[in-house]
Amino acid sequence: MSCYSLHSGRITSNFDADSPCGIPNSTYPHVQCCVNGDYCMSNGICHYYNNNSDKGYYTADCTDPTLQDPACMTRCGAQPGAIIDYDENTGLWACCTYTSDGKANCSNLSDEKFPAPAPSKLVTIQYLPPTGTPEYATPTDVMSTPLVNSTSNQIGAGAAAGIGVGVGVGVFLLATTAAFFYFRRRRSSQHSGAASKTWTESVAEVQQPQTVFRYELGKPEPRPQELA
Q: Which segments cross the bilayer (predicted)?
C-alpha cells in the first residue's frame, strides 16, 4: 500500500520510504504512515530515533492519494519537509523552517502551529522496522483516527466497567456480613433473655414461702365461725 505526503504544496508518493501505521478496514479505509525504522505516534505524529542520538518528530503521511480522508494530515504542507518541534512556551507544536540547502531549522519555527499533547504524553501506536513487513496488532481505531487530546492517564471503558463491578461486589459482601452479625447478635440476645427468665422463675419457685399448719395436742382445731 502506497503512502502520500504534502511538501512544498505538492502531493508526492513515498511508497519506497514509508509504511502504513496500521491495517485499514471498512470503517477506516485509510491510515497514517511513517518512515520505515520510525515510530507511529498518536495525533498524526511520527518519532524518529537514530543511534547517533539524532531524534525528533515529524508529521505523518497518509494512504489516501488525495489526502482528503480524516485520517490524513496536511500539516507543514508549505514547507520542504515535515519536521516539527514542541514549543514549551505556547504548549503548541510548530513546523520547522528550512535552510537554503534543505536542512530543518527548528530554532526558527514557522507560524504554522497546531495543538497536540507534549512529547511525553504521546502514545506509541506502531513500530515500523527498517526492512520487512511490520507486525501489526489487531486493527484499532486509534491507528487511523488522530487523538487530539489523548493522554496516557485515560481509563478505558472496559477498565471502568471492571471497577464498577468490583465496587458492586464489595458493597454486596459488606451488606451480607453486616446482616449476618446482626441476626446472630439478635438470636444470642433472645437466648440469653429466655435463659435468664427461666432461672428467675426457678429461684422464685424455690424461695416462695409455703403455709405450714401446726396442731398442738390438747387444743381443738379451729373451726370456721358462722355468720350471725
A: 159-183
Q: Is 133 helix (H, G, I), strand (E, B) or coil?
A: coil
Task: Give whole-number Cα distances, 7 to 98, 111, 120, 128, in Å.
Answer: 12, 16, 27, 22
| Residue range 99-132, pLDDT digits in tens | 999 999 999 999 999 999 999 999 999 999 999 9
Burial track 113-125 (b if 16+ CB lie within 10 A, e otherwise):
bbebbeeeebbeb
Q: How far is CA 134 from CA 23, 25, 35, 39, in A?
A: 10, 17, 12, 11
pLDDT of 212 reads 44
CB 92 within 8 Å of CB 115: yes
∠ CA 28-31-33 to the nearest 5 degrees? 180
- Helix count (H) and strand count (E) of the chain? 1, 12
For residue range 18-59, what is the model confidence (pLDDT) as tens digits? 999 999 999 999 999 999 999 999 999 999 988 777 899 999
Determine the Cα–Cα distance for residues 46 and 120; give it in Å rounded to an integer. Answer: 13
